[in-house]
Amino acid sequence: MKTNHPIRRFVLASAATVSGIVLLLALKPATDPAAASAQAGAASQQSAGQGSPQGGTAQQSAAGTVLGDVVRTEYGPVQVQLTMSGGRIAKADAVQAPAGGTSDQKTELAVPKLNQEAVAAGSADIDSVSGATYTSEGYKKSLQSALDKAKAAGGAAGSAGSSGSAGSSGSSGAASTAPAAQARVVTGTVSDTQYGPVQVRLTLSGKKITKAEAVQAPKGGTSDQKTALAVPKLNQQAVAAGSADIDSVSGATYTSEGYKKSLQSALDKAGV
User: d(Cα 173, Cα 39) in Å, to the nearest integer?
Assistant: First the structure.
């Protein structure tokens, strides 16, 4: 009978142990589960960071239209309308300027230059156009009043935004409210009547008229009384009707007709 040598048993046992270790290493997952979870979390955070640069979305610059005061000059009224974007002048227009006779040529020459200067300067510190001094001075005064209104409106909007942010942070989980429609200001064309020009300015929220006013109306003599009587009624009718289909005011027929024409042109510009 053949006996097992002790050395032979030791060699066989060692070989079996090595084989078991090799088998366990072959069956072990290539990636540690904890490490894989950490890598997945890091990848998710990286993707989220790429989706919203600097931790948030960029805010769009608010845009709005501001109408300056009517400035009376020796040759006629001047009024400037500004389109603002992010606190800067994006566009300038003279919605009123001297007209008739040689004023047509001077206005045609001066206004485009003044508009360009206003946008470039971003202020009312612009040069007068040679040969159109009165128009230039009136333009600058109306431009300054428009800038003052835009600045005041911007400050009010900033205060409202701050209080809104505080309210939302204090009530986490509350449903957010839909933003209100941005107000627009649209000025109709000047409608000349037998007793003087009529021009209507509208404030709209969406396509609804929230305010109507006559920035020009007949003046002097009995026209003052008729205008004082008719214009408030016409303004109320325009807001109530939401259109130019309004009644003429008795005793102020010409003013009423001019008002309705300018009102309709403002509605056309607004796309209502």
Answer: 31
How far is residue 204 from each of residues 32, 156, 177, 235, 243, measured CA to CA in Å? 64, 18, 21, 13, 12
DSSP reduced 3-state for 96:
strand
Express each pLDDT in 192-230 by its tens digit.
Answer: 998 899 999 898 888 889 899 998 999 888 888 889 889
Is residue 212 within 8 A of residue 244, CB to CB? The reply is no
Q: Are 111 and 99 in contact (CB under 8 A)?
A: no
Q: Can you list the alpha helix ranges (DSSP code H) found in the chain?
A: 6-27, 33-51, 102-121, 133-170, 222-241, 253-270
Distance separating alpha carbons of residues 155 and 147, to the nearest angstrom: 12
pLDDT in tens, 59-101: 333 458 999 999 999 889 999 999 998 889 999 999 999 988 8
DSSP 75: T
What lies within 8 Å, CB to CB, of 122 at 6+ separation is 88, 89
Q: Quote the distance between the C-alpha of residue 105 and its chain's center.
A: 34
Structure tokens at 240: 């109530």
pTM of the model: 0.42
Residues 209 and 242 sit within 8 Å (Cβ to Cβ): yes
170 vs 164: CA distance, rounded Å: 10
Q: Are the CB atoms for 199 and 262 separated by under 8 Å?
A: yes
What is the residue type of 176? S
Strand partners of residue 201: 187, 213
